[in-house]
User: Fold this.
Amino acid sequence: MHSSSATTLERDTATAYAPATSTSPRSLDQLRVGDRGLVGAINQIATSLVQFDPHLARRLMEIGFIPGEPLQVLHKGFWGGEPIAIRIGQSTFALRRFEAALITVVPALSVIPTTTSD
Amino acid sequence: MTTALTFSPLVALVGNPNCGKTALFNRLTGARQKVANFAGVTVERKIGRYLSSSGRTWQILDLPGTYSLNASTPDEQITQAVITGQHRSEAMPDAIICVVDATNLRRGLRIALELKQLHVPLVLAINMVDVARRRQIQIDLAALSDALGMPVVETIAVQPQGEAELLTALEQLALTPEKKPPVTLSVLSAPELQQQVNAILQRCVQQTELASHWSEKIDRIALHPLFGTAIFLTLMFLVFQAVFSWAAWPMDAIKSSVDALGSLLQELMPTGVLRDLLVQGIIGGSGAVLVFLPQIIILFFFILTLEDSGYLPRAAFLLDRLMGSVGLSGRAFIPLLSSFACAIPGIMSTRTIQNPRDRLITIMIAPLMTCSARLPVYTLIIAAFIPDKQLLGLINLQGVVLFLLYLAGILSAMLVAWVMKPRKSSNHALMLELPDYRWPNLRNLSLGLWERIRIFVTRVGTIILALMVLLWFLSSFPGAPANAPHPAIYYSIAGILGRGLEVIFAPIGFNWQICIALVPGMAAREVAVAALGTVYALSQHGDDLAQTLQPLIAHSWSLPTALSLLAWFVFAPQCIATLSVVKRETNSWRYPVIMASYLFGLAYAASFITYHLAGFLLQ
Assistant:
């Protein structure tokens, strides 16, 4: 009853359902052009690169980067790979790398699990 | 609702940026709008009137676009303060029209939910429905109205009668003349709001997500490193050419008509102070104001078209790294480029820069872009003093010097921008929205252009005119005594001023003729050459004047003096028209004063170094 492809499908859905920690979540600036995903979380990082700005995370959410919203990287600037143009929900925004670095991205669930038993 | 017709309700338009709010505002108010600034800030305030069929006058206030009622930027703070009744000089609105983009309800509806906590009569206007229909987005208005608890109408701001439903809904609002007390907003978390919005959308809106919109397809070229940059450079070249050369013909036409009018009056009127005041002071002064209009109109035509079409953010995207390295916003490019023609339209066009700090820095460095008014001075001095030789047999030495002068302007602008960069923000967030492309709307364009012209003539023009008349007065009184050895201007107040200034300017090598010429030269830099002509008692005009002046100054000035004057003009702080525009755009006298001072300091330092270095090297 289980062909090899159905088994593969099962395995894939199992992986897709695995909690995010099993595959380390990437930040938005690490994605390449064309990559899709869902917003995971907005982090507040105070590192040497980023001036701690408590409003930045909130503002990112206000323009649409809300956990669970679908996004896709559309374009990257020529020099230094920034700004990054991202389709978020129904809008398109350009962010600098340090802003994009605050946004973690989880893979979109692209496979709909089918029941394998009857 | 039968509240007295004398009550004129104040309705505020609130919504995200790029939702077509301004187009809707134009649709409601037409030319019956007034543009000014909100008190104490450089944020634009647009208020207009709408007369309804019932005879009631509605006041419509267009508030700055905001993504959320939690304000971060200065213009968002204004919106928040006004609608909560906490603004110190603006009244709380009696009703609010929340404008959302039909193609972006996912984000737009959040603000509608936030506005509900104000308990102010609300209408939701779903704008750009024509685009939504093309994308086969179906909105159940009744269900949406039910879910949100407010009347919902569709509007198409770019079509005539596109606002009809909105007007009907406005009339049906329950309004009271009594002002409500100020409200403090409670912060609603964005994820919570989005959840509510998503639930509402699921019930009321049907749409299929397209694989990629045509805006995205265009962006594949427009934001492409090679093709995108090529398109951008072509567009910029076109704008620059237009402002520089296409404006030349109307500018000459204006100049000659003003001159003709002046000559006519000169003939018709009896000799005397009144005639001179009219001809040289008022007509000459008005001419000096009107001559800027062709460049302003042409530049703003391009800017408003690019802005309306949605292209400007793409240009900012392409330039972000380059401009960012000197602390400038990508949107500063067009204003700075236009400043090569004339700083006045350039500074006026900085309103496309949203961040006030970036905008201020751009305004402050715009005069360092070598404007076309300096060219007559440059050409005169270079022709008189720089030998017409070929460097390495290829490059013309005079051309090189001219290029170096332009380069000096650009480099000093970058240096000043870098110095003015705020210390704290090493890199502030970009968060630049790239809205969908759309066809620019001719009506909005015309209204926008008309607004710019009106603002320039009434606000800036009056200052320039007043100062021109003052300068005329200073240059004409008191008159020369009989058998005077020097030209009349020597004895005028301007002349006394100039000779007094010689004390200050002697260390940089300026003689009294130059010092006197600098005073009327404050009116406009190109006047400096004419002023020199007056000081040397020459009666020619225009090119003839330049021809005659050339050997004259070549003989009487030293090379270090000439070079020092060139260096001075790179920074030349005194252009009254520019300072007037800065005053208007920054809404205070502080910044024109700062600008004049720092430019003066730089000019003096540059001239000083040039004069003494040249003197030393040429010994």
Notes: Residues 236 and 334 of chain B are 8 Å apart (CA to CA).
